[in-house]
């Protein structure tokens, strides 16, 4: 059983926690190379910004370095590719999604002394930039551009409908364990799309160490076991979900699925 309870994600950089998560899911994650690349890029940034005395000027120069010269960019062509959630792959490909690009920006930004914090906005991960005595600004890591409250409101309406309103809690700074938990869900979803069921199963096992007996996570585990032809285990997980969430619309569908599985060949593992 994989166990991350010994890791204190709040005491480390978000990108460091993500590398631990990545390694736990895929042992082939290039952690040492990623750490060396982070160090190399940080040294380059420190050198490039050495002649910039004013903090805001340094920050603008850093964003130009990150997006224009290093070439990091949001992956619009394959947004849901699992490579976008593995930090070593993001560093290698220079492509990612808001949370992985945001984790890199936070790592470099904090090392360079910039006032940045992560926010799990309902639609995507954002970075809060809070200069002293100024109103907070919000950076979209996917593009490297600032987003206005009007844009954030539009994003919410697109997600939740025309009555959605931007609230202070939507822009609350998020702790690292919460971000890592959402990162894990994103990675599991990507691996399921790619039918990489063994790695997706590791995601579920990890999630259940944090939230034991979560019926929705156990339902998802049942689906993965079904794809791996472990039908008896799959049915056990489906039954757990049905017993704990009898009013969920998925419960009736799973009953039908269990009936079909009970008449299929039993595979023992």
TrEMBL record:
Signal peptide (residue range): none
InterPro entries in UniProt: SirB1_N, TPR-like_helical_dom_sf
Domain Protein SirB1 N-terminal: 33-184
Pfam entry (one): Transglut_core2
Family note: Belongs to the UPF0162 family.
Descriptive protein name: Protein SirB1 N-terminal domain-containing protein
UniProt organism field: Vibrio diazotrophicus
